[in-house]
Amino acid sequence: MMSFNQISLEQMFCYFDENGDGRISSAELKSCMSAVGYDLSLEEVRAIIESMDAAGGDGLLRLEEFIKLIEREEEDDTEMIEAFKMYEMEDQGCITAKSLKRMLSRLGYSRNIEVCQEVIDIFDTNNDGVLSFEEFKNMMMG
């Protein structure tokens, strides 16, 4: 996965900073996260900002804090990709009931193929019978 460079992060920060005051408020972060498909509550957004807010807890993100947040998210995704690769079958880019059963048995959990398919069906949002990376991520985060 390609890492963001400093310039594009600054451009992204300016995009999120709708009023141009050099800080991202919870409302601005919520609005921009919604625009890219993350529907977070104001409380969730405030918690994210609070976890990154090094400047005295003013509830706003400055550029340096924003960059740390994005870099932390990239690390989380890298770990999630590694976990996904452990579950997927022969580099097909998806997790099948068979590959889920295989990985669970390696972890010491014996499940039959029907149970594995039921688990996949719960998180299979596009109903193709397998888990994509995004669907796997939702399953692991849920």
Q: Classify the beta-strand content into a percent band.
A: under 5%
Q: What is the CA-atom radius of gyration, in angstroms?
A: 19 Å
One letter per element, helices H and strands E, the order comes to: HHHHHHH
Largest sheet: none
The residue fraction in helices comes out at 55-70%
Low-confidence stretches: none
**Count of helical regions:** 7
Give the overall silhouette.
elongated
Termini gap: 23 Å
| Residue-averaged pLDDT | 83
**Total E-strand runs:** 0
Query: How would you classify the helix and strand content by structural class?
Result: mainly alpha
Topology summary:
Elements: H1 6-16, H2 26-35, H3 42-52, H4 63-87, H5 97-106, H6 113-123, H7 133-141
Helix pairs in contact: 1-4, 2-3, 5-6
